[in-house]
Amino acid sequence: MLIGVRLSDLGRRSRWLLAIASLLFFIALAATFLIPQSVLWMLRAWLLAILFLGAYWLSFLADLRGRLGTWQLALATLFGLLAWILVVAMLLLWPQLLMGA
């Protein structure tokens, strides 16, 4: 249950995005601590995971439009915005993430 919403209430797209985001977060976490890679590679893995998390939250809001209470909508919107703000901040702080370096 997430902010009073069961996973079964979500659409197929939201469940897939959540599964992909969870898998990418696991891979990024494992890469950070277990696999000796360059910092740029790890930042790209985290960026991809956060990007899918932001997509999940947008899909979550679309699936439950009209069924969320005020505080639930505010909390879900906050989480969705934080993910996209983090993506933009990462791209502004490390523009080489988009380059092939």
TrEMBL record:
Q: Which UniProt keywords apply?
A: Membrane, Transmembrane, Transmembrane helix
* Source taxon at top rank: Bacteria
**TM stretches of this protein:** 16-35, 41-61, 73-94
Protein name per Swiss-Prot or TrEMBL: DUF4175 domain-containing protein
Q: Which organism is it from?
A: Pseudoluteimonas lycopersici
